[in-house]
Amino acid sequence: MRRHRVAAMGGDGIGPEVVQAAVEVLRVAAERDGGFALQFDDFDWGSAYYRQHGRMMPADGVDRLRGYDAILFGAVGAPDIPDHVTLWGLRLAICQGFDQYANVRPTRVLPGITSPLRHVAGPELDWLIVRENSEGEYAGVGGRAHQGLPIEVASDVSVMTRAGVTRIMRYAFALARSRPRKLLTVVTKSNAQRHAMVMWDEIAAEVARDFPDVTWDKMLVDAMTMRMVAKPASLDTIVATNLHADILSDLAAALAGSVGIAPTANINPERDAPSMFEPIHGSAFDITGKGIANPVGTFWTGVMMLEHLGEPQAAARLMRAIEKVTADPALHTPDLGGQATTRQVTAAVCAALAGAND
Ligand code: IPM
Ligand code: MG
């Protein structure tokens, strides 16, 4: 029996609710499969931990996670703690500590879900966004001086390295090659940013030579937003910098019907440290504790985790169960215009899994 050890970290807001739901569903997925077992260990790090201990996680937090095969993460962020403290103290500390440099965000319109784009039902919108996840605008380089004085100065410097750009390009080209259309769009802004983004373009062209079977094009990020809306079917795999992909992936999630559905994986492709899987929606304090958070984003995240753990069959089975449930409007949570609860959606996915005859 294959065993996978998973660190389950709900974090803040609705994070614990959706992670708990996903743990339940993943347990059923493992049982149904029969070939592997999942061991979940709970971690209570996040804003509540911060209020008690003055930090988001223990000083040796990253090391404590190192032995796990994967991390299932909920959300981070609280109204009473500055966002940059919660973010850098936990999520980014883990992403950067484990060099999870590839952030992968699939976007599709699932059965039963309505895209705000007219005429888009399914295959016209099937994207895989690859976000550079270790440097660029999120490098953390910059500073602030003379606070409060008229001469106050502040800077956030976007840092790109040849090594960092090359590895994300290679990852994106390889991913594009693995998909049927073998199509990659490289997002850039080299018309205005004339140093790092120009290097980004050059490295894309260099890496492309090793992938002659991948068709690729280049798109300025502003024009890219229009193309995503006007010609969604012209896109397949997309690679962009940390900040550009952050913005584009929210647009993608909205075009696919709800941010409550979108999953993401922070991948360490070399597998020398655990990768981290999370829904993209965030902590959503307006609905925390109401039992109506959409768990589908975390379930889909679970699919990505199973794929990464080398359980493609169980992953595919779970995805089919999710799609069976989204197809039924009676099982839509309020973010999708329905009235279903987190519990009802979770129970329905578990039932679909248990009843799967493949
Ligand atoms: C995301 C989120 C984060 C990001 C926030 C919470 C800082 O928007 O994962 O897309 O910008 O990276
Ligand atoms: Mg974002």
Rounded to an integer in angstroms, the radius of gyration calculated over CA atoms is 20 Å
Unique ligands: 3-isopropylmalic acid, magnesium ion
Physical arrangement of strands within the biggest beta sheet? 2-1-3-12-11-4-5-10-8-9
> Could you report the average pLDDT, rounded to the nearest whole number?
96
Count the beta strands.
12
CATH class category name of the largest domain: Alpha Beta
Strand content: 15-25%
**CATH superfamily membership of the largest domain, which one?**
Isopropylmalate Dehydrogenase
Topology:
Elements: E1 2-11, H1 15-33, E2 36-42, H2 47-53, H3 61-65, E3 70-75, H4 83-97, E4 102-108, E5 126-132, E6 136-145, E7 153-159, H5 162-178, E8 183-188, H6 196-208, E9 215-220, H7 221-230, E10 237-240, H8 242-255, E11 263-267, E12 275-279, H9 296-308, H10 312-326, H11 342-354
Parallel strand pairs: 1-2, 1-3, 3-12, 5-10, 8-9, 8-10
Antiparallel strand pairs: 4-5, 4-11, 6-7, 11-12
Helix pairs in contact: 1-9, 1-10, 1-11, 5-6, 7-8, 9-10, 10-11
Bound molecules: 3-isopropylmalic acid and magnesium ion (MG).
Description:
The protein is α/β, with parallel strands linked by helices and 358 residues long. It has 2 domains: 1-100 and 274-358, Isopropylmalate Dehydrogenase (3-Layer(aba) Sandwich); 115-256, Isopropylmalate Dehydrogenase (3-Layer(aba) Sandwich), CATH 3.40.718.10. It is 39% helix and 22% strand. The protein is built from 11 helices and 12 strands. The protein has helices at 15-33, 47-53, 61-65, 83-97, 162-178, 196-208, 221-230, 242-255, 296-308, 312-326, 342-354, and strands at 2-11, 36-42, 70-75, 102-108, 126-132, 136-145, 153-159, 183-188, 215-220, 237-240, 263-267, 275-279. The strands form 2 sheets. Strands 2-1-3-12-11-4-5-10-8-9 form a 10-stranded mixed sheet, sandwiched between helices. A two-stranded antiparallel ribbon has the order 6-7. The longest helix is centred in the N-terminal third of the chain and has 19 residues, at 15-33. The two termini are 19 Å apart. The model has no long low-confidence stretch (mean pLDDT 96). The structure holds 3-isopropylmalic acid and magnesium ion. Residues 246, 250 line the site of magnesium ion.
